[in-house]
């Protein structure tokens, strides 16, 4: 099948997530990277293009020049979809401009800086009917998809409590001056990161995982955020109590300063009949607990799984797949949407998930600012 022509904004030399996007797009085998604006610095961007074997004539100085030049190319070679993998503040201006010029998008989270910007993108996507995929990467894991399907089938009974946690430790060494990093530290700067560091960067993944797996919406939050040091402008750690309705509550805990923690994202959904537990660092095991039976472990590549989980891995059982394959599953679903093929809802997070994420981040920041009060996620 003809490859979809992919462009990329960001993701140049030394960048973190752009490399994962390129690998994911190759794993799913639907795309061909044809050009982009890989770095804020044009010389470094060109250096990267040479390194990757990308035609220099399609390595552009800015998003504006990319749009103009690509639109002049014949439709069979023109870029069709663009992945935005820059720091947060650039997502909205680039996304709006690209959508308004007819490009499908894959965009990193948090989707925008404000709720208003997020709603604007949702409006443009609805009007243009272009594909917009938001890369909440963890939704691409087979066992997360299995959990979503089984919860929808009601196997847990009435859901009574939901806990999600996302603990990392990498900022610890930076704020205490024991390690310097070139990339990623923009996360501490409100101009580049937005209203939150920890909740915007990783708390929002935990929030998304809750809404993705349960199909429920968080209605209200009460947060207690911690910048950890007096000279830090944004939260690096926090606890958020969440309410779904009168009889369903839970908690989201997130931190970037838990020394020794790596990428410890977990979710637990407790029901009246049974419960699920899943952990990102061991993603091929989905634990189902019950008071009346021994614990069960679901694993990928077995006939007992639902179709959605089974189509989300490629190797036979016992051959672990991980983060690249999870992201590739999102790229796969996005490709189906771009080609006008049928896809399963949930195959890629949408612009609406981006709006929900921005509402969550802003409600959490507002709750903390107002002295730790309940704030609606609307
Ligand atoms: N989905 C996930 O699991 C996940 C994981 C990590 C990061 N992210 C998100 O991905 C985004 C990028 O994060 P990162 O850690 O890769 O950052 P990074 O600092 O490692 O890379 C950012 C890249 O953007 C480029 N850039 C900056 N300004 C630019 C401009 N004006 N034009 C073109 N390129 C420009 C930089 O040169 C760099 O190549 C963030 O929004 C972050 O929240 C998501």
Notes on the structure:
The chain has 378 residues and is an alpha/beta fold. The chain folds into 2 domains: 4-137, NAD(P)-binding Rossmann-like Domain (Rossmann fold, 3-Layer(aba) Sandwich); 138-310 and 351-369, 2-Layer Sandwich (Dihydrodipicolinate Reductase, domain 2). Helix content is 35%, strand content 21%. The chain contains 12 helices and 14 strands. It has helices at residues 17-27, 42-52, 63-71, 91-100, 115-128, 142-152, 170-175, 190-193, 198-214, 307-310, 323-339, 351-369; strands at 4-10, 31-37, 81-85, 104-107, 132-134, 159-167, 220-226, 237-245, 248-255, 264-271, 275-279, 286-289, 296-298, 375-376. It has a 9-stranded mixed sheet with strand order 13-12-11-10-6-9-8-7-14. It has a 5-stranded parallel sheet with strand order 2-1-3-4-5, with helices on both faces. A hairpin with a 6-residue loop joins strand 11 (275-279) and strand 12 (286-289). Helix 1 packs across helix 11 (323-339), helix 4 runs parallel beside helix 5 and helix 9 crosses helix 12 (351-369). The N and C termini lie far apart (42 Å). The mean pLDDT is 97. It binds nicotinamide-adenine-dinucleotide. The site of nicotinamide-adenine-dinucleotide (NAD) has 24 residues, from strand 1 and helix 1.
Provide the fold topology.
Layout: E1 4-10, H1 17-27, E2 31-37, H2 42-52, H3 63-71, E3 81-85, H4 91-100, E4 104-107, H5 115-128, E5 132-134, H6 142-152, E6 159-167, H7 170-175, H8 190-193, H9 198-214, E7 220-226, E8 237-245, E9 248-255, E10 264-271, E11 275-279, E12 286-289, E13 296-298, H10 307-310, H11 323-339, H12 351-369, E14 375-376
Parallel strand pairs: 1-2, 1-3, 3-4, 4-5, 6-9
Antiparallel strand pairs: 6-10, 7-8, 7-14, 8-9, 10-11, 11-12, 12-13
Helix pairs in contact: 1-11, 4-5, 5-12, 6-9, 9-12
The protein binds nicotinamide-adenine-dinucleotide.
